[in-house]
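Usage example:
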Amino acid sequence: MGTTQLESVPEPKYWHLKTVLTEALDSEFSVGEILPNERDLAARFGVARATLRQALEQLELEGRLQRRRGVGTTVAPPRVGVAVGAERHQWPGAAGDAWQPVDCASAAPPAAVADLLETDRDEQVHTVRRSRMTHGQPVAAELLYIPDSSVPDLSGIDSPSGAARARAVLRELQHLGLEGQDQSVELGSASAEDAKELDRLPGAPVLVVTTRYYAGGRTAAVSVATYRADTCRLTFGASGHVEIHHDPERRAS
Amino acid sequence: MGTTQLESVPEPKYWHLKTVLTEALDSEFSVGEILPNERDLAARFGVARATLRQALEQLELEGRLQRRRGVGTTVAPPRVGVAVGAERHQWPGAAGDAWQPVDCASAAPPAAVADLLETDRDEQVHTVRRSRMTHGQPVAAELLYIPDSSVPDLSGIDSPSGAARARAVLRELQHLGLEGQDQSVELGSASAEDAKELDRLPGAPVLVVTTRYYAGGRTAAVSVATYRADTCRLTFGASGHVEIHHDPERRAS
DNA sequence: GAGTGGTCTAGACCACGAT
DNA sequence: TCGTGGTCTAGACCACTCT
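Running the assembly step on the lines above writes:
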Protein backbone atom coordinates (compact mmCIF):
# COMPACT_ATOMS: atom_id res chain seq x y z
CA MET A 1 0.00 0.00 0.00
CA GLY A 2 1.98 2.98 -1.16
CA THR A 3 -0.80 5.45 -0.38
CA THR A 4 0.34 8.29 1.80
CA GLN A 5 -2.57 9.07 4.03
CA LEU A 6 -2.61 12.80 4.35
CA GLU A 7 -5.95 14.22 5.40
CA SER A 8 -6.76 10.97 7.10
CA VAL A 9 -7.80 13.25 9.98
CA PRO A 10 -10.42 15.51 8.41
CA GLU A 11 -10.85 18.68 10.38
CA PRO A 12 -14.41 19.24 11.64
CA LYS A 13 -16.24 21.89 9.64
CA TYR A 14 -16.88 24.14 12.59
CA TRP A 15 -13.18 24.09 13.46
CA HIS A 16 -12.21 25.13 9.98
CA LEU A 17 -14.94 27.76 10.02
CA LYS A 18 -13.52 29.14 13.24
CA THR A 19 -10.10 29.50 11.63
CA VAL A 20 -11.51 31.25 8.59
CA LEU A 21 -13.62 33.60 10.70
CA THR A 22 -10.69 34.38 13.00
CA GLU A 23 -8.59 35.43 10.04
CA ALA A 24 -11.44 37.51 8.67
CA LEU A 25 -11.87 39.21 12.03
CA ASP A 26 -8.17 40.01 12.16
CA SER A 27 -8.00 41.49 8.70
CA GLU A 28 -11.39 42.68 7.51
CA PHE A 29 -13.34 43.80 10.54
CA SER A 30 -12.88 46.42 13.19
CA VAL A 31 -14.04 46.46 16.80
CA GLY A 32 -17.75 47.05 17.19
CA GLU A 33 -18.59 46.22 13.61
CA ILE A 34 -21.59 43.96 13.23
CA LEU A 35 -21.35 40.72 11.28
CA PRO A 36 -23.97 39.42 8.85
CA ASN A 37 -26.69 37.47 10.64
CA GLU A 38 -26.30 33.76 11.34
CA ARG A 39 -28.60 32.59 8.56
CA ASP A 40 -26.74 34.59 5.94
CA LEU A 41 -23.34 33.56 7.24
CA ALA A 42 -24.33 29.89 7.27
CA ALA A 43 -25.56 30.14 3.70
CA ARG A 44 -22.41 31.93 2.61
CA PHE A 45 -20.23 29.15 4.02
CA GLY A 46 -22.56 26.42 2.85
CA VAL A 47 -23.20 24.90 6.27
CA ALA A 48 -26.20 24.45 8.53
CA ARG A 49 -26.90 27.23 10.97
CA ALA A 50 -26.14 24.94 13.92
CA THR A 51 -22.66 24.29 12.56
CA LEU A 52 -21.98 27.97 12.10
CA ARG A 53 -23.21 28.61 15.63
CA GLN A 54 -20.74 26.09 17.00
CA ALA A 55 -17.94 28.18 15.49
CA LEU A 56 -19.42 31.46 16.75
CA GLU A 57 -19.80 30.02 20.23
CA GLN A 58 -16.11 29.24 20.45
CA LEU A 59 -15.15 32.66 19.14
CA GLU A 60 -17.39 34.25 21.75
CA LEU A 61 -15.77 32.06 24.41
CA GLU A 62 -12.39 33.35 23.27
CA GLY A 63 -13.61 36.93 23.57
CA ARG A 64 -13.48 37.66 19.86
CA LEU A 65 -17.23 38.11 19.34
CA GLN A 66 -20.16 39.40 21.28
CA ARG A 67 -23.66 38.18 20.50
CA ARG A 68 -26.85 39.76 21.71
CA ARG A 69 -30.33 38.45 21.09
CA GLY A 70 -32.45 40.79 19.04
CA VAL A 71 -29.41 42.79 18.02
CA GLY A 72 -26.74 40.80 16.26
CA THR A 73 -23.15 39.65 16.43
CA THR A 74 -20.44 42.24 16.85
CA VAL A 75 -16.67 42.18 16.93
CA ALA A 76 -15.58 42.36 20.56
CA PRO A 77 -12.90 44.71 21.86
CA PRO A 78 -9.79 43.13 23.38
CA ARG A 79 -10.34 41.79 26.88
CA VAL A 80 -9.88 44.26 29.68
CA GLY A 81 -7.37 43.39 32.36
CA VAL A 82 -8.95 43.55 35.81
CA ALA A 83 -6.72 43.53 38.85
CA VAL A 84 -7.61 40.67 41.15
CA GLY A 85 -4.54 39.69 43.13
CA ALA A 86 -4.13 42.18 45.93
CA GLU A 87 -0.64 43.67 45.99
CA ARG A 88 -1.23 45.06 49.44
CA HIS A 89 -3.79 42.95 51.21
CA GLN A 90 -6.81 44.67 52.53
CA TRP A 91 -10.37 43.89 53.50
CA PRO A 92 -13.13 44.19 50.98
CA GLY A 93 -14.71 47.58 51.30
CA ALA A 94 -11.45 49.36 52.16
CA ALA A 95 -11.06 52.83 50.74
CA GLY A 96 -10.56 52.82 47.00
CA ASP A 97 -11.46 49.28 46.12
CA ALA A 98 -13.24 48.68 42.86
CA TRP A 99 -16.48 47.30 44.26
CA GLN A 100 -19.85 48.81 44.95
CA PRO A 101 -22.07 47.38 47.68
CA VAL A 102 -25.52 46.48 46.42
CA ASP A 103 -27.35 44.63 49.11
CA CYS A 104 -27.03 42.66 52.31
CA ALA A 105 -28.96 39.80 53.85
CA SER A 106 -28.60 37.07 56.43
CA ALA A 107 -28.60 33.58 55.03
CA ALA A 108 -27.03 30.15 55.28
CA PRO A 109 -24.17 30.01 52.78
CA PRO A 110 -23.58 27.17 50.31
CA ALA A 111 -22.07 24.09 51.93
CA ALA A 112 -18.69 24.67 50.26
CA VAL A 113 -18.50 28.17 51.78
CA ALA A 114 -19.62 26.96 55.20
CA ASP A 115 -16.74 24.48 55.14
CA LEU A 116 -14.24 27.24 54.43
CA LEU A 117 -15.68 29.41 57.19
CA GLU A 118 -15.81 26.46 59.55
CA THR A 119 -19.38 27.34 60.47
CA ASP A 120 -22.25 24.90 60.76
CA ARG A 121 -24.04 24.09 57.54
CA ASP A 122 -27.18 25.90 58.60
CA GLU A 123 -25.64 28.82 60.46
CA GLN A 124 -26.66 32.16 59.03
CA VAL A 125 -23.97 34.64 58.00
CA HIS A 126 -24.02 38.17 56.65
CA THR A 127 -24.21 37.93 52.89
CA VAL A 128 -23.16 41.07 51.07
CA ARG A 129 -23.74 41.45 47.38
CA ARG A 130 -21.39 43.74 45.51
CA SER A 131 -20.80 44.55 41.87
CA ARG A 132 -17.79 45.72 39.98
CA MET A 133 -17.79 47.99 36.95
CA THR A 134 -15.10 48.86 34.42
CA HIS A 135 -15.55 51.46 31.72
CA GLY A 136 -19.25 51.62 32.50
CA GLN A 137 -19.72 47.89 31.94
CA PRO A 138 -20.41 45.36 34.70
CA VAL A 139 -17.54 42.89 34.85
CA ALA A 140 -18.12 40.98 38.05
CA ALA A 141 -20.69 40.09 40.70
CA GLU A 142 -19.64 39.06 44.17
CA LEU A 143 -21.13 37.42 47.22
CA LEU A 144 -19.27 38.09 50.44
CA TYR A 145 -19.90 35.76 53.37
CA ILE A 146 -19.11 37.16 56.81
CA PRO A 147 -19.91 35.27 60.00
CA ASP A 148 -21.35 37.22 62.89
CA SER A 149 -18.21 36.48 64.89
CA SER A 150 -16.16 38.61 62.47
CA VAL A 151 -18.28 41.72 63.01
CA PRO A 152 -19.32 41.43 66.67
CA ASP A 153 -20.10 45.13 67.14
CA LEU A 154 -22.60 45.19 64.34
CA SER A 155 -25.52 44.41 66.61
CA GLY A 156 -25.53 48.01 67.83
CA ILE A 157 -26.27 49.19 64.34
CA ASP A 158 -29.83 49.15 63.15
CA SER A 159 -29.38 49.96 59.48
CA PRO A 160 -32.20 48.76 57.33
CA SER A 161 -31.24 45.97 54.99
CA GLY A 162 -29.95 47.06 51.60
CA ALA A 163 -26.88 48.95 50.50
CA ALA A 164 -26.72 50.91 53.73
CA ARG A 165 -26.47 47.76 55.81
CA ALA A 166 -23.91 46.33 53.39
CA ARG A 167 -21.73 49.38 53.96
CA ALA A 168 -22.14 49.06 57.72
CA VAL A 169 -20.99 45.43 57.67
CA LEU A 170 -17.96 46.28 55.55
CA ARG A 171 -17.11 49.19 57.83
CA GLU A 172 -17.09 46.87 60.83
CA LEU A 173 -14.82 44.44 59.01
CA GLN A 174 -12.02 47.00 58.73
CA HIS A 175 -11.57 46.85 62.52
CA LEU A 176 -10.26 43.29 62.34
CA GLY A 177 -6.56 42.70 61.80
CA LEU A 178 -6.15 41.09 58.37
CA GLU A 179 -3.45 38.43 58.50
CA GLY A 180 -3.52 37.14 54.98
CA GLN A 181 -5.61 35.86 52.15
CA ASP A 182 -5.51 33.28 49.42
CA GLN A 183 -7.37 32.96 46.18
CA SER A 184 -8.36 30.42 43.61
CA VAL A 185 -9.72 30.72 40.09
CA GLU A 186 -11.90 28.25 38.27
CA LEU A 187 -14.31 28.10 35.39
CA GLY A 188 -18.02 28.17 36.10
CA SER A 189 -21.29 29.16 34.53
CA ALA A 190 -23.38 32.11 35.60
CA SER A 191 -26.31 31.56 37.90
CA ALA A 192 -29.56 33.28 37.03
CA GLU A 193 -28.85 36.11 39.51
CA ASP A 194 -25.25 36.61 38.46
CA ALA A 195 -26.28 36.53 34.82
CA LYS A 196 -28.72 39.37 35.36
CA GLU A 197 -26.10 41.43 37.14
CA LEU A 198 -23.52 40.74 34.43
CA ASP A 199 -25.93 41.44 31.59
CA ARG A 200 -25.51 37.95 30.16
CA LEU A 201 -27.68 34.88 29.74
CA PRO A 202 -27.76 32.29 32.52
CA GLY A 203 -25.09 29.67 31.98
CA ALA A 204 -22.66 32.11 30.42
CA PRO A 205 -19.05 31.20 31.16
CA VAL A 206 -17.56 33.00 34.15
CA LEU A 207 -14.29 32.95 36.03
CA VAL A 208 -15.04 32.24 39.67
CA VAL A 209 -12.55 33.80 42.08
CA THR A 210 -12.81 32.51 45.63
CA THR A 211 -10.95 34.51 48.26
CA ARG A 212 -10.36 33.50 51.86
CA TYR A 213 -9.59 36.25 54.33
CA TYR A 214 -7.66 35.26 57.46
CA ALA A 215 -7.87 37.03 60.79
CA GLY A 216 -7.42 35.85 64.33
CA GLY A 217 -5.99 32.55 63.16
CA ARG A 218 -9.10 31.54 61.26
CA THR A 219 -11.05 32.28 58.10
CA ALA A 220 -12.89 35.50 58.88
CA ALA A 221 -14.64 36.00 55.55
CA VAL A 222 -15.05 34.37 52.18
CA SER A 223 -15.69 36.10 48.89
CA VAL A 224 -17.00 34.39 45.77
CA ALA A 225 -16.68 36.69 42.78
CA THR A 226 -17.80 35.75 39.28
CA TYR A 227 -16.16 37.61 36.40
CA ARG A 228 -17.41 37.64 32.82
CA ALA A 229 -15.08 35.18 31.10
CA ASP A 230 -15.74 36.66 27.68
CA THR A 231 -14.61 40.18 28.47
CA CYS A 232 -12.15 39.83 31.35
CA ARG A 233 -8.50 38.96 31.77
CA LEU A 234 -7.73 38.60 35.46
CA THR A 235 -4.37 40.07 36.43
CA PHE A 236 -2.41 39.09 39.49
CA GLY A 237 -0.27 41.82 40.87
CA ALA A 238 3.06 42.81 39.40
CA SER A 239 5.29 41.56 42.19
CA GLY A 240 7.49 44.54 42.90
CA HIS A 241 7.16 45.95 39.43
CA VAL A 242 5.30 48.82 37.90
CA GLU A 243 2.53 48.13 35.45
CA ILE A 244 3.62 49.33 32.04
CA HIS A 245 0.68 48.01 30.14
CA HIS A 246 -1.37 50.95 29.05
CA ASP A 247 1.35 53.50 28.51
CA PRO A 248 -0.07 55.81 25.83
CA GLU A 249 3.41 56.55 24.50
CA ARG A 250 3.86 53.00 23.28
CA ARG A 251 1.36 50.48 21.88
CA ALA A 252 -0.27 51.86 18.79
CA SER A 253 -2.56 48.90 18.09
CA MET B 1 -55.68 42.71 34.59
CA GLY B 2 -55.43 40.91 37.89
CA THR B 3 -53.54 37.95 36.45
CA THR B 4 -50.39 37.20 38.35
CA GLN B 5 -47.92 36.17 35.73
CA LEU B 6 -45.91 33.41 37.27
CA GLU B 7 -44.04 31.24 34.80
CA SER B 8 -44.13 34.03 32.28
CA VAL B 9 -40.43 33.29 31.95
CA PRO B 10 -40.37 29.61 31.01
CA GLU B 11 -37.01 28.08 31.85
CA PRO B 12 -35.25 26.53 28.86
CA LYS B 13 -35.43 22.75 28.90
CA TYR B 14 -31.68 22.25 28.96
CA TRP B 15 -31.40 24.54 31.97
CA HIS B 16 -34.00 22.59 33.88
CA LEU B 17 -32.33 19.36 32.81
CA LYS B 18 -29.04 20.64 34.15
CA THR B 19 -30.63 21.30 37.53
CA VAL B 20 -32.20 17.87 37.67
CA LEU B 21 -28.97 16.16 36.65
CA THR B 22 -26.96 18.17 39.16
CA GLU B 23 -29.21 17.02 41.97
CA ALA B 24 -29.03 13.45 40.75
CA LEU B 25 -25.22 13.64 40.66
CA ASP B 26 -25.15 14.97 44.20
CA SER B 27 -27.40 12.33 45.63
CA GLU B 28 -27.45 9.20 43.50
CA PHE B 29 -24.06 8.89 41.87
CA SER B 30 -20.52 8.53 43.10
CA VAL B 31 -17.28 9.65 41.53
CA GLY B 32 -16.20 7.59 38.55
CA GLU B 33 -19.60 6.02 38.02
CA ILE B 34 -20.71 5.94 34.40
CA LEU B 35 -24.03 7.45 33.35
CA PRO B 36 -26.45 5.91 30.87
CA ASN B 37 -25.59 6.82 27.30
CA GLU B 38 -26.89 10.00 25.73
CA ARG B 39 -29.60 8.34 23.64
CA ASP B 40 -31.07 6.59 26.65
CA LEU B 41 -30.85 9.65 28.85
CA ALA B 42 -32.53 11.82 26.23
CA ALA B 43 -35.35 9.29 25.88
CA ARG B 44 -35.75 9.05 29.63
CA PHE B 45 -36.18 12.82 29.92
CA GLY B 46 -38.28 13.07 26.78
CA VAL B 47 -36.02 15.49 24.93
CA ALA B 48 -33.96 15.42 21.78
CA ARG B 49 -30.40 14.25 22.10
CA ALA B 50 -29.08 17.69 21.16
CA THR B 51 -30.97 19.24 24.06
CA LEU B 52 -29.62 16.71 26.51
CA ARG B 53 -26.13 17.34 25.17
CA GLN B 54 -26.50 21.05 25.84
CA ALA B 55 -27.06 20.23 29.50
CA LEU B 56 -24.19 17.73 29.62
CA GLU B 57 -21.85 20.27 28.01
CA GLN B 58 -22.49 22.76 30.78
CA LEU B 59 -22.02 20.16 33.46
CA GLU B 60 -18.72 19.16 31.89
CA LEU B 61 -17.72 22.83 31.77
CA GLU B 62 -18.44 23.03 35.48
CA GLY B 63 -16.26 20.02 36.14
CA ARG B 64 -19.10 17.75 37.21
CA LEU B 65 -18.88 15.30 34.30
CA GLN B 66 -16.24 13.85 32.08
CA ARG B 67 -17.10 12.60 28.60
CA ARG B 68 -14.90 10.43 26.43
CA ARG B 69 -15.69 9.35 22.90
CA GLY B 70 -16.06 5.63 22.55
CA VAL B 71 -16.27 5.18 26.30
CA GLY B 72 -19.08 7.09 27.94
CA THR B 73 -19.93 9.82 30.43
CA THR B 74 -18.58 9.52 33.95
CA VAL B 75 -18.99 11.48 37.16
CA ALA B 76 -15.91 13.67 37.57
CA PRO B 77 -13.93 13.94 40.81
CA PRO B 78 -13.78 17.38 42.46
CA ARG B 79 -11.37 19.75 40.75
CA VAL B 80 -7.79 19.55 41.87
CA GLY B 81 -6.19 22.73 43.16
CA VAL B 82 -2.99 23.50 41.29
CA ALA B 83 -0.64 26.10 42.68
CA VAL B 84 0.02 28.81 40.13
CA GLY B 85 0.88 31.98 41.97
CA ALA B 86 4.47 31.75 43.11
CA GLU B 87 4.86 32.54 46.79
CA ARG B 88 8.59 32.85 46.35
CA HIS B 89 9.34 33.96 42.83
CA GLN B 90 11.70 31.85 40.83
CA TRP B 91 12.53 31.10 37.26
CA PRO B 92 10.80 28.28 35.45
CA GLY B 93 12.97 25.20 35.67
CA ALA B 94 14.24 25.97 39.17
CA ALA B 95 14.70 22.98 41.40
CA GLY B 96 11.44 21.43 42.48
CA ASP B 97 9.01 23.10 40.15
CA ALA B 98 6.10 21.08 38.88
CA TRP B 99 7.00 21.13 35.20
CA GLN B 100 8.73 18.71 32.91
CA PRO B 101 10.62 19.93 29.85
CA VAL B 102 9.46 18.25 26.66
CA ASP B 103 11.05 19.97 23.74
CA CYS B 104 12.79 23.10 22.54
CA ALA B 105 12.91 24.93 19.24
CA SER B 106 13.71 28.33 17.81
CA ALA B 107 10.76 30.16 16.35
CA ALA B 108 9.09 33.53 15.99
CA PRO B 109 6.56 33.86 18.82
CA PRO B 110 2.94 35.00 18.35
CA ALA B 111 2.62 38.75 17.90
CA ALA B 112 1.11 39.21 21.37
CA VAL B 113 4.13 37.54 22.96
CA ALA B 114 6.60 39.49 20.83
CA ASP B 115 4.98 42.69 22.11
CA LEU B 116 5.47 41.60 25.72
CA LEU B 117 9.09 40.66 25.06
CA GLU B 118 9.64 43.85 23.12
CA THR B 119 11.29 41.91 20.34
CA ASP B 120 10.66 42.34 16.64
CA ARG B 121 7.69 40.49 15.26
CA ASP B 122 9.85 38.12 13.26
CA GLU B 123 12.73 37.68 15.67
CA GLN B 124 13.28 34.08 16.66
CA VAL B 125 13.33 33.14 20.33
CA HIS B 126 13.93 29.93 22.23
CA THR B 127 10.60 28.18 22.58
CA VAL B 128 10.49 25.57 25.29
CA ARG B 129 7.56 23.21 25.63
CA ARG B 130 6.83 21.83 29.09
CA SER B 131 4.06 19.79 30.56
CA ARG B 132 2.67 19.52 34.03
CA MET B 133 1.21 16.43 35.63
CA THR B 134 -0.83 15.93 38.78
CA HIS B 135 -1.81 12.53 40.10
CA GLY B 136 -0.64 10.94 36.87
CA GLN B 137 -2.92 13.12 34.75
CA PRO B 138 -1.75 15.94 32.48
CA VAL B 139 -3.18 19.23 33.73
CA ALA B 140 -1.30 21.85 31.77
CA ALA B 141 0.82 22.49 28.69
CA GLU B 142 3.16 25.44 28.51
CA LEU B 143 5.14 27.34 25.92
CA LEU B 144 8.03 29.36 27.30
CA TYR B 145 9.46 32.13 25.15
CA ILE B 146 13.01 33.19 25.93
CA PRO B 147 14.91 35.68 23.77
CA ASP B 148 18.53 34.95 23.01
CA SER B 149 19.51 38.00 25.04
CA SER B 150 18.25 36.35 28.22
CA VAL B 151 20.51 33.31 27.82
CA PRO B 152 23.64 34.76 26.18
CA ASP B 153 25.95 31.94 27.21
CA LEU B 154 23.85 29.29 25.57
CA SER B 155 25.76 29.50 22.29
CA GLY B 156 28.59 27.51 23.84
CA ILE B 157 26.26 24.58 24.35
CA ASP B 158 25.64 22.25 21.48
CA SER B 159 22.83 20.14 22.85
CA PRO B 160 20.70 18.59 20.17
CA SER B 161 17.20 19.92 20.04
CA GLY B 162 14.69 18.16 22.25
CA ALA B 163 14.33 17.79 26.00
CA ALA B 164 18.08 18.01 26.55
CA ARG B 165 18.27 21.41 24.90
CA ALA B 166 15.18 22.54 26.82
CA ARG B 167 16.95 21.71 30.06
CA ALA B 168 20.06 23.55 28.92
CA VAL B 169 18.08 26.72 28.17
CA LEU B 170 16.34 26.58 31.53
CA ARG B 171 19.66 26.03 33.29
CA GLU B 172 21.07 29.15 31.69
CA LEU B 173 18.03 31.14 32.76
CA GLN B 174 18.77 30.57 36.44
CA HIS B 175 21.88 32.74 36.13
CA LEU B 176 19.80 35.85 35.58
CA GLY B 177 18.63 37.83 38.57
CA LEU B 178 14.82 37.56 38.73
CA GLU B 179 13.34 40.90 39.73
CA GLY B 180 9.67 40.09 39.66
CA GLN B 181 6.83 38.60 37.70
CA ASP B 182 3.19 39.19 37.00
CA GLN B 183 0.46 36.92 35.79
CA SER B 184 -2.89 37.01 34.13
CA VAL B 185 -5.61 34.41 33.71
CA GLU B 186 -8.17 34.24 30.96
CA LEU B 187 -10.44 31.73 29.29
CA GLY B 188 -9.39 30.17 26.01
CA SER B 189 -9.86 27.06 23.95
CA ALA B 190 -7.24 24.42 23.40
CA SER B 191 -5.21 24.46 20.21
CA ALA B 192 -4.73 21.18 18.40
CA GLU B 193 -1.28 20.70 19.97
CA ASP B 194 -2.34 21.64 23.48
CA ALA B 195 -5.38 19.42 23.17
CA LYS B 196 -3.25 16.41 22.36
CA GLU B 197 -0.97 17.10 25.31
CA LEU B 198 -3.94 17.59 27.64
CA ASP B 199 -5.75 14.50 26.41
CA ARG B 200 -8.77 16.53 25.31
CA LEU B 201 -10.39 17.44 22.02
CA PRO B 202 -9.30 20.62 20.23
CA GLY B 203 -11.37 23.56 21.36
CA ALA B 204 -11.78 22.26 24.89
CA PRO B 205 -12.01 25.10 27.43
CA VAL B 206 -8.70 25.99 29.06
CA LEU B 207 -7.48 28.57 31.52
CA VAL B 208 -4.62 30.46 29.94
CA VAL B 209 -2.06 31.75 32.42
CA THR B 210 0.38 34.26 30.98
CA THR B 211 3.42 35.03 33.11
CA ARG B 212 5.95 37.78 32.51
CA TYR B 213 9.35 37.37 34.11
CA TYR B 214 11.31 40.57 34.76
CA ALA B 215 15.09 40.79 34.88
CA GLY B 216 17.50 43.58 34.12
CA GLY B 217 14.67 46.09 33.95
CA ARG B 218 12.89 44.34 31.10
CA THR B 219 10.77 41.33 30.30
CA ALA B 220 13.25 38.48 30.14
CA ALA B 221 10.85 35.65 29.44
CA VAL B 222 7.17 34.97 28.86
CA SER B 223 5.29 31.82 29.69
CA VAL B 224 1.90 30.89 28.27
CA ALA B 225 0.45 27.95 30.15
CA THR B 226 -2.90 26.36 29.32
CA TYR B 227 -4.63 24.46 32.11
CA ARG B 228 -7.54 22.08 31.64
CA ALA B 229 -10.50 24.17 32.76
CA ASP B 230 -12.65 21.14 33.49
CA THR B 231 -10.33 19.55 36.02
CA CYS B 232 -8.32 22.43 37.48
CA ARG B 233 -8.78 25.07 40.12
CA LEU B 234 -5.87 27.50 40.01
CA THR B 235 -4.69 28.59 43.43
CA PHE B 236 -2.76 31.74 44.15
CA GLY B 237 -0.45 31.50 47.08
CA ALA B 238 -1.63 31.75 50.66
CA SER B 239 -0.13 35.11 51.56
CA GLY B 240 1.74 34.37 54.75
CA HIS B 241 -0.55 31.56 55.75
CA VAL B 242 -0.25 27.82 55.82
CA GLU B 243 -2.39 25.74 53.52
CA ILE B 244 -4.88 23.82 55.65
CA HIS B 245 -6.87 22.40 52.84
CA HIS B 246 -6.21 18.71 52.82
CA ASP B 247 -5.81 18.09 56.52
CA PRO B 248 -6.91 14.47 56.94
CA GLU B 249 -8.16 15.13 60.48
CA ARG B 250 -10.96 17.36 59.28
CA ARG B 251 -13.09 17.25 56.11
CA ALA B 252 -14.92 13.98 55.96
CA SER B 253 -16.76 14.64 52.69
C1' DG C 1 -18.49 -5.47 15.40
C1' DA C 2 -20.98 -3.19 18.89
C1' DG C 3 -21.56 0.82 21.44
C1' DT C 4 -20.15 5.33 22.72
C1' DG C 5 -19.77 10.37 22.19
C1' DG C 6 -18.79 14.00 18.26
C1' DT C 7 -20.41 16.25 14.09
C1' DC C 8 -23.91 17.79 10.93
C1' DT C 9 -28.37 18.74 8.71
C1' DA C 10 -32.79 21.23 7.61
C1' DG C 11 -36.10 22.51 9.36
C1' DA C 12 -39.38 24.90 13.36
C1' DC C 13 -40.75 28.08 16.93
C1' DC C 14 -39.65 31.46 20.69
C1' DA C 15 -37.83 35.73 23.22
C1' DC C 16 -35.95 39.89 22.69
C1' DG C 17 -34.54 44.60 20.79
C1' DA C 18 -35.26 48.02 17.60
C1' DT C 19 -38.48 50.64 14.72
C1' DT D 1 -43.95 44.43 13.15
C1' DC D 2 -39.63 42.76 11.75
C1' DG D 3 -35.09 40.88 12.24
C1' DT D 4 -31.99 39.02 15.46
C1' DG D 5 -29.98 35.34 18.21
C1' DG D 6 -31.69 31.33 21.45
C1' DT D 7 -33.93 26.89 21.84
C1' DC D 8 -35.49 22.50 20.14
C1' DT D 9 -36.39 18.52 17.11
C1' DA D 10 -35.57 13.94 14.68
C1' DG D 11 -33.06 12.22 12.22
C1' DA D 12 -28.06 10.82 9.86
C1' DC D 13 -23.26 9.61 9.67
C1' DC D 14 -18.51 9.58 11.59
C1' DA D 15 -14.49 8.59 14.88
C1' DC D 16 -13.22 6.36 18.57
C1' DT D 17 -12.66 2.56 22.26
C1' DC D 18 -13.44 -1.77 23.81
C1' DT D 19 -13.97 -6.73 23.34
